[in-house]
Amino acid sequence: MKTILAATLAAASLVLAAQGAQAHATFAEAEVTQNSTARLTLRVPHGCEGQATLKVRIQIPEGIIAVKPMPKAGWTLETVTGAYQNSYELYGAKVTEGVKEIIWTGNLPDAFYDEFVFRGRITDTLTADKTVFIPVVQDCANGAERWIEIPKEGQDAHDLESPAPGITVKKAGHSAH
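Below the sequence we write its predicted structure tokens.
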């Protein structure tokens, strides 16, 4: 009886450890709508193999413009700006450059999770009913978690070891949940 209980506990521990190892950065929001401004909340579930997260970097893909990150108490905030590949119309003005990367620097112990928020305009250059992937890197003292893998056409993101978090783009006129 003790052997069965010990084996069951060991198996449960392995399952929980595997689930924890597979936890990755995700967005709280599942969908966004073309031609609207979306609030996106990146969830960072853990550090790097027990180490605290010291920096979170989000690479903004083409088609998301007018990005504004939310400051976090205790963290410094930096943005990297640059030229867009395309020009966009925003409130009657031509927009050709903007935030390409957001960088928060601080200290998030491995025992905790946190959320990093920004907003941006979802343009209609992003294809409706497709997922847009937003690469994220967590830097720690002695390593990093690089959530940067983008699936190829027809490939499931769950098959990737370090998938970039994604959100589904809905056609303008449909509400995002």
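Confidence is low (pLDDT under 50) at residues 1-22.
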